[in-house]
Design a protein that fits this description.
363 residues; mainly alpha; Cytochrome p450; two-stranded antiparallel sheet; two-stranded antiparallel ribbon; 4 strands; 63% helix; binds protoporphyrin IX containing FE; ent-kaurene oxidase activity; transmembrane helix
Length: 363
């Protein structure tokens, strides 16, 4: 939802008495803030009372606004989204310093209401605070999924994915050379397949009966419940995120929408992981993250195990998809970069296909 719509919605729902009350609370908070010890001062982007910089962020590409501000205020500055102060980091170096060198000190970030529900209150490596849970689950994801040995074990899945993508792209350019092509469809389908093979041991070949929903879902519907819906939910804005002192005001429709997404995701994960647990109990072993986690045998509850398996599904299917899409978009806009990339690949691979071994040889 656009920020202006949220504010409009807010103003419509809460007439003058609430706004006067909110203003009072805001002024009190300001007074309290003045008397507390201050952090080192940062450049502040000027905004409006109460809503801060929200109106300046109303377009759908806030990164462009952040970049414009960086030209004026430098690589680190602060803005106000309603009552919350947000520090914006604008260069790779400062982002790396915050996310790697000083990770423990920023890890306790506050999540939006939607993310709090969808992540089962930080029960994912990527959103967890730096604590024992983070240390253990990060170790799991490195040894069972992302680390060099795990990546070696999954190599054949990635090779199959690349072969399928290339085959589809070739046949399309041969059959419809002049027609625009939607890369997303191919990447989305293949990356979801890769995610399922790596996490559960195999792609979905037939619809799955989800007991808790009392229905059978196709692979496409499962993709929607596990990946698309939660991501749409994650960027849903609840105006109470900007005004935490008004969190007591109910926002039932959004709350119910996000809870429905969470419950459907939970039900589908339970069905998928349940199938694999039965397989493992029958003695059939596959090369997968669920097999790895079961052999570790230390995850405390069914819900925690299902969250740990869902996490790489969403990261493989979506994060990698949008990164690839962004790279293709940038390449598509720039003919000279396409030519340069083609020449670089040709100089390393000749007329052979690119393999993972070639990647480190590319300039
Ligand atoms: C090209 C694809 C990817 C990109 C660009 C990417 C980018 C990122 C970024 C920027 C972060 C830091 C986020 C933050 O702290 O707010 C992150 C964290 C993380 N990513 Fe990815 N990611 C990609 C693929 C994946 C995949 C496939 C997985 C599969 C398991 C994954 C798992 C994680 C985990 C577990 C974390 C949290 C690490 C920690 O807390 O120490 N990512 N990723």
């Amino acid at each position: 939802m656009a920020t202006t719509a949220i504010i409009k919605d807010f103003l419509q729902q809460f007439p003058s008495i609430t706004i006067a009350l909110a203003l009072l609370v805001f002024l009190l908070l300001k007074k309290l803030q003045k008397s507390s010890p201050r952090n080192p001062s940062l450049p502040v982007v000027p905004g409006l009372p109460l809503i801060g910089n929200l109106l300046q962020l109303k377009d759908k590409k806030p990164h462009q606004t952040f970049t414009r501000w960086a030209e004026v205020y430098g690589p680190i500055y602060s803005i106000k989204t309603g009552a919350s102060t947000v520090v914006v980091l604008n260069t790779t170096d400062v982002a790396k310093e915050a996310m790697v060198t000083r990770f423990p000190s920023i890890s306790t970030r506050k999540l939006s209401n939607a993310l709090k529900i969808l992540t089962s209150d930080k029960c994912m490596v990527a959103t967890s605070d730096y604590n024992e849970f983070h240390k253990t689950t990060k170790r799991y994801i490195l040894s069972g999924f992302l680390g060099a040995n795990a990546q070696k074990r999954f190599r054949s899945h990635r090779d199959t994915m690349i072969k399928n993508m290339v085959r589809t792209l070739h046949s399309y350019t041969k059959d419809k050379p002049l027609q625009a092509f939607n890369f997303r469809n191919v990447f989305e389908n293949e990356l979801f397949g890769l995610a399922l093979k790596q996490t559960l041991g195999k792609d979905l070949e037939s619809p799955v009966y989800v007991e808790e929903l009392g229905t059978t879902l196709s692979r496409e519907e499962i993709f929607e419940v596990l990946v698309l819906d939660p991501l749409m939910g994650a960027i849903d804005v609840d105006w109470r995120d900007f005004f935490p002192y008004l969190r007591w005001v109910p926002n039932k429709s959004l709350q119910m929408k996000i809870e429905r997404m969470f419950n459907r995701r939970k039900a589908v994960m339970k069905a998928l992981v349940g199938q694999e647990k039965k397989r493992i109990a029958s003695g059939e072993v596959l090369n997968s993250y669920v097999d790895f986690l079961s052999s570790e045998g230390k995850t405390s509850s069914e819900e925690e195990l299902n969250m740990l398996i869902w996490e790489p599904i969403i990261e493989t299917s979506d994060t990698t998809l949008v990164t690839t899409e962004w790279a293709m978009y940038e390449l598509a806009k720039n003919k000279s970069h396409q030519d340069q990339l083609y020449q670089e690949i040709e100089s390393v691979c000749g007329s052979d296909k690119v393999t993972e071994e070639n990647i480190s040889q590319l300039p």
